[in-house]
Amino acid sequence: MTAQTQRRWAWPAELRARGILGINRRNADFVLPHNPRSHYPRVDDKLLSKKFCEERGIPVPETYAIIERQGDIRGFPDCVRERPQFVIKPASGSGGRGIIVVAEHDGETFRTPGGAALELAEVRYHLSTVVSGLFSLGGQHDRVIIEQRIIRHAAFERIAVGGTPDIRVILYRSVPVMAMVRLPTAASRGRANLHQGAVAAAVNLRTGETFGGVCKDHVVSKHPDTGATIEGLRIPFWDQLLDAAQKLADALEMGYVGVDFVLDASIGPVVLEANARPGLAIQVANRCGLAHRLDFLDAQPPGALAPARRADLIATLSGMM
Amino acid sequence: MNARRATPWVAGLLALLGVALVGLRAYTRHAQQLASGESLWRLTYTVKFQTETSGARMSAAFPFDTAHCRVFRQNVLHPDMQPERLRSPLLATREIDLLTLQPGEQNMTAKFDIHLSRRGRFPAYNEPLLSAQARAEWLRSDKMVQADNPVVMETLQNIRRETPSSGDLIQQLFEYCHTQVAAAEEETQADAASTLKKKAGTPAGRARALVALCRANKTPARLVTGFVMEENESLEPRVWVEVWLGNRWSPFEPENGFARELPYNYLVVRRDGGDIVRETRGSGLEVHFSALRLPSGLGAGRSKHNSLTALADLTRLPLEMHEVLSLILLLPLGGLVTAFFRTIVGIRTFGTFTPSLIALSFVFADWRTGVFVFALVLGVGLVSRSFLDRLKLLMVPRLSTVLTLVVLCIIFCVSLLDMLRLTPGAQAVLLPMVILTMTIERFYLTSEEDGTGFALQLLAGTVVVSLCCYFVLRWGSVGRFLFAFPEAHLVTIAVLILMGRYTGYRLSELLRFRDFGPVRKPEGPQS
CA quadruple B411, B417, B419, B424: dihedral positive or negative? Predict the structure, then answer.
């Protein structure tokens, strides 16, 4: 199934013909001109992103508490007394760093879904390192979000190992151009982070069905841990998810943005975060470059990208190679 | 797109401007003649001696900058000796100390390109007032300058008696040494007392006699060793005297009778009466000096000091600053190398300017010391960082703890190298410690979060880029060119701007996206 190349590299002309977008062009032609620096806090600060979502009725994990200062940490046990499950998350973290998922606790010992036990003192130390800025982008003072734990949707039972898969949609000028679902593996230690070894399958924009696949920048079509095929899976609530992504991209006023969702068993698609510099491995998963799709959107007449006309565009884009 | 169209124009204009300015200045520099009374010289020291053991030392004093004299280029070669330190406090002796590494013949050559100005237009350093300690030093009596010797005291009394109370006693002492003490041709004892006793002496003896008389009179005085610059294949060092009069040092030269003012071609090398070149634990010291008039090419800051072109002319600055300034001028090239590796090759590193700064510190230290200290600091840093992790410290105190350990580690490294007689350059200390500390922290966090493989990959990238920066920074001729024409960096900016708009693939992406290469069967997303 997996196509093999004989050569160990591709010539630039070949990549151009396939419409592969490189980092330099992504930054210079899409990120820099379309994502105003002043809007970055809207994606870098998860509290602000959540506010944007909540104002527009886009579902996000419910916030239980926010820890802003070292002094607030003392109140942490009271915050979570009534919450059997929750997630600790740095407001300005990236790449899933600094996140602790608590599946059950008795106020003294906190258990992660993986079974590891953390004492209260360890959790408090973790909270204080987050506040002191260890996981924030510039090492600046940060806040801790304590929020609802997302329960993994049954659709991913077979192909996610040790964590919750997430779905990334890349939107250009608020039109979804490419999507993938990222599945945690043993190598990625439960995180849906591609450069840590998670595996991703492309998602057909029109149908929400998975195809293709990538792991460590290589074409794959099976989950490396379970061996289950990652193709042909239909993502539930796909249209609802695409709708939410477009609404959020419109609200953020970012021209080139990646929106990450998780599927909750009861709520459906929930926005986790948005990213102003979404990665490029999605192209390998899709077996298709981004550049042609982005150029296609740029070539549309004015007004053609209005919300009402996006459905046709999405159908066209999903058929583009 | 607007930016895309503007970029080549901006870059082109900057490059053109840079090249034009370099060309213009190069042209005017060649067209310009030396003003009258100005001349360029090359002074050469050739030193040879034998050692039977390693660890012998030699030292050589170099010419001072004065109002009449400016060393604008200096080249010291000592193939088998290690420099221990280059002392150049503003007023003491400018001197290099060398340590021999192995027994055998030792050689050193030093070339100084010197600009002499009859008008004395170079900015001279103001001498500070004499401290009590310095005053005591310049009043001291020793075995060559016996200020307390009866002969000296008696001569001083006689001259005092003959001088009217309103007269200038120092002038009389000088006259005495110039006219009453005859020049002795043969090698005689050159100390002050015997010279005065015989009323005859070598030039050095007469100078010592004057110093001894001044000191006996409780007027601070010192011996100056130097050269009289005249074209000569075999130049002899000369000795004269400086006397502390009215809060400044005034020169007196008993041999030729110059008082308070010396001809502009008197070059000061030492101000403590010692020999210009000395060695310990060696034998057969041969020292040869020569002076050569240079054609009127590039001198030290020939343009007027207040003109705009003088601002760009860095050669007018004191020699001590030349090396540091040319290194600073090379730093943008380090940035250029880093930018090239990141945007065109696609090698990732820890931090943006970490490689340039590491390379810079390696230029200061010799590379073996550099690598040793660097590896040890990184190793100790990482081990201690993993121990600190168990203490669960907050970030800033933790980082500061690692910084302290890094500092201690560097200090003990230097001490250890010295104990092992590996004679580290003291400059090894110049390793950018804060940057190293951050690198240790980031290496640790990266290996925790993204795996050791990824962290090692970043480290390897950092080392490769550092190495390339090192070779660029070591490129002496480029450094000298940039020092002469700093405006050439306009071209650097132009190249950086072009690189900033490079939207092609990185080389690493050609590997990363290799699955999009030729032989793939087309595989439709939909069935």
Answer: negative
Those residues with Cβ within 8 angstroms of residue B412's Cβ, 6 or more apart along the chain or in another chain: none
Using DSSP, state whether B329 is helix, strand or coil.
helix
A51: in domain: no
From A18, A283, A286, residue closest to B525, measured CB to CB? A286
Report percent pLDDT > 90 for chain B.
16
pLDDT at residue number A283? 92
Q: Do A3 and B505 touch (CB under 8 A)?
A: no
Q: Given this model, what pLDDT does residue B38 score?
A: 81
Q: Which of B500, B504, B515 sits opposite A22 (nearest CB)?
A: B504
Q: Do A24 and B394 touch (CB under 8 A)?
A: no
- Percentage of chain A modeled with pLDDT above 90: 45
- Domains identified in chain A, total number: 2
In the listed set A117, A147, A177, which residue is the last one of a domain according to the structure? A147
Q: Does A140 touch chain B (CB under 8 A)?
A: no
Helix A310-319, helix A291-298: angle, nearest 10? 150
* Together in a domain, A251 and A215: yes
For A61-65, A116-120, B416-420, which range has the lowest pLDDT when averaged over its residues?
A: B416-420
Shared domain check, A22 and A168: yes
Question: B451 and B362, same structural domain?
Answer: yes
Intervals of chain B under pLDDT 50: 88-91, 302-305, 520-527
8 A C-beta contact, residue B341 and residue B468? yes
Q: Which two tokens stand for residue B360?
A: 């810079």
Q: A254 is in which domain, residue-wise? A: 12-43+153-319
Q: Which residues 110-139 in chain A show a CB within 8 A of chain B?
A: 122, 125, 128-129, 132-134, 139
Closest residue in B to A133 (Cα–Cα): B395
Q: A287 and A199 in one domain?
A: yes
The pLDDT assigned to B91 comes to 46
A254 with A174: CB under 8 angstroms? no
pLDDT at B52: 83
Query: How many Å from the N-terminal Cα to the C-terminal Cα in chain A?
Result: 19
Give the per-residue pLDDT at A278.
92
Average pLDDT, chain A: 88
Within this chain, do residues B171 and B259 fall inside the same structural domain, yes or no?
yes
Largest Cα–Cα separation, chain A = 61
Give B362-374 pLDDT, tens digit per residue.
Answer: 877 667 777 777 8
Q: Which of B1, B394, B514 sits opposite A129 (nearest CB)?
A: B394
Range of the domain at B488: 319-512
What is the per-residue pLDDT for B15? 93
Which pLDDT does position A205 carry in this prediction?
A: 92
Q: Which of B341, B385, B507, B515 to mutate to test the interface with A (most CBs of A within 10 A)?
A: B515
Residues in B closer than 8 angstroms to A204, CB to CB, are 525-526
CA-closest candidate to residue A262, choices A153, A148, A114: A153
Question: Is B301 part of a structural domain of the chain?
Answer: no
Check pLDDT > 80 for residue A221: yes
- Among residues of chain A, what percentage have pLDDT more than 70? 97
Mutation pick from B342, B400, B499, B514 vs chain A, by most beta carbons of A within 10 Å, is: B514
222-261 in A: which are within 8 Å (CB) of B?
Answer: none
Distance from the Cα of A118 to chain B's closest Cα (Å) equals 14
The verdict on B96 and B112 lying in the same domain is yes
Quick check: helix, strand or coil at residue A180? strand
* The two three-digit tokens of residue B195, written as one number: 């010279």
Residue A141 touches partner B, C-beta closer than 8 Å: no
pTM of the model: 0.70
ipTM for the whole complex: 0.83
